[in-house]
Amino acid sequence: MSFSVKRLLSSSLFQNFVANGFWQLSNLLPPIILVPYLVNTLGGEQYGAFAFLQTLMEYGFLITDYGFLLSATKRVAQASSPAERAKIFANVVFIKLTLVGILALFFFLGFGLIFSQEYSVGTIGFLLLAILGYSLFPMWYFQGIEKFKFISILNALSKLLLMGTILYLVNERDDLTYAVVAYSIAYLFMGGVGFIYALRSFGTPVFKLLSIKEIKLLLKEGGYFFTSSLMPTIYTHLPVVVLKFFTNNLFVGLFSLSLKIVTIAKYTLLAFVNVLYPRICRKATQLSIQELNAYLKKVYTPLWIACLLGCGLLFGLAPFIVHLVDIEKGSINILVFVLRILSAVPILVATHAWFSLPLMAYGHAKLYSYAILYGSIFALLWQGTCVVLWQRNSLLLLYGISIAVPLTEFIIGGAFYAYYRKLKHLLEQKTT
């Protein structure tokens, strides 16, 4: 074994990649096992009803995260002392818990007015407990201090707990609420353990460090990333909401199932991007744009190639993948077509992440937000047009909305590339 290989294997970046690979493996297994099980146990329509709740859960995760997965990670990574990290921790947690309280009010009011006949109050309560558990887990803090091994192990344990509780509790078509209960148990476990572990690491009562000035600063910094995160979540998951209102739970289930499969590949990539992000933030303060670009090219190219191969396999194996679930024969071809449309999403995300990482590292969060905004506006206009044209043709509406997802990622990638070229030109001018 050469010296360079030994050095690579012993490097903290490589170890973080391994830890994140373990993280992603633990994220991959539950959907692979549970999605076919839930579809087969609950049935296509009930799975669609459950998928709608999962979409709302994702919105809840996004709102309570408020962009801190990027902004607070950067603050923690660049913090000069444990006391500064403790102050960041206390104020971020306070903001997140406040957002959970506000979200609970809106959820109970919204479901009481619109979906009171379909979902019980208990179901919504357990949904909120899952969001609370997610909010308590300080992923942003552990990423900032690069403690990936701990979060990978904890994540794996929570996913095992999730699989065990779902397989134990969900046995009939009417067990939708029990599926939500399983998610709340798993997220409360992960959030509680992670929160206590982080809290005990400080050794001081951190909540004495609450500061209105710090809260305002964190809200301002996180706001750009929240906006840029909100928009893709809206355009990615809005189809589920649109299909819920204009078609039926079966079509919701078919789209959600395809999106779930593609999301597995997408978030596998983004997990590795999250490993790179804190390191790139530090290197941005030490290297020129040319040197940073060379470093990024060196570590990111293998990920991009792997993602491209994965997308090709997903497209080619779509007919075999859909047979993992027990659905009506008439729905199989629909599911294959939608899955193939969405199979381009991961490689498009991989491409625009290459250009967005330097934007965030050099503090150009506004440009990042603008690029996401352009794509989101396009997605909303496209999906709105689909509703106007095909609200009475469920199949065409499903296909039209599915096509919007990769097209939107393409537009976002183009905007990121344009802004990256502009940033590179400005920084090169400063050094000459």
From TrEMBL:
<protein>
    <submittedName>
        <fullName>PST family polysaccharide transporter</fullName>
    </submittedName>
</protein>
<feature type="transmembrane region" description="Helical">
    <location>
        <begin position="176"/>
        <end position="202"/>
    </location>
</feature>
<keyword id="KW-0472">Membrane</keyword>
<keyword id="KW-0812">Transmembrane</keyword>
<feature type="transmembrane region" description="Helical">
    <location>
        <begin position="367"/>
        <end position="390"/>
    </location>
</feature>
<dbReference type="InterPro" id="IPR002797">
    <property type="entry name" value="Polysacc_synth"/>
</dbReference>
<dbReference type="InterPro" id="IPR050833">
    <property type="entry name" value="Poly_Biosynth_Transport"/>
</dbReference>
<feature type="transmembrane region" description="Helical">
    <location>
        <begin position="396"/>
        <end position="420"/>
    </location>
</feature>
<keyword id="KW-1003">Cell membrane</keyword>
<feature type="transmembrane region" description="Helical">
    <location>
        <begin position="223"/>
        <end position="246"/>
    </location>
</feature>
<feature type="transmembrane region" description="Helical">
    <location>
        <begin position="93"/>
        <end position="115"/>
    </location>
</feature>
<feature type="transmembrane region" description="Helical">
    <location>
        <begin position="153"/>
        <end position="170"/>
    </location>
</feature>
<feature type="transmembrane region" description="Helical">
    <location>
        <begin position="252"/>
        <end position="278"/>
    </location>
</feature>
<feature type="transmembrane region" description="Helical">
    <location>
        <begin position="51"/>
        <end position="72"/>
    </location>
</feature>
<dbReference type="GO" id="GO:0005886">
    <property type="term" value="C:plasma membrane"/>
</dbReference>
<dbReference type="Pfam" id="PF01943">
    <property type="entry name" value="Polysacc_synt"/>
</dbReference>
<feature type="transmembrane region" description="Helical">
    <location>
        <begin position="21"/>
        <end position="39"/>
    </location>
</feature>
<keyword id="KW-1133">Transmembrane helix</keyword>
<feature type="transmembrane region" description="Helical">
    <location>
        <begin position="299"/>
        <end position="322"/>
    </location>
</feature>
<feature type="transmembrane region" description="Helical">
    <location>
        <begin position="334"/>
        <end position="355"/>
    </location>
</feature>
<feature type="transmembrane region" description="Helical">
    <location>
        <begin position="121"/>
        <end position="141"/>
    </location>
</feature>
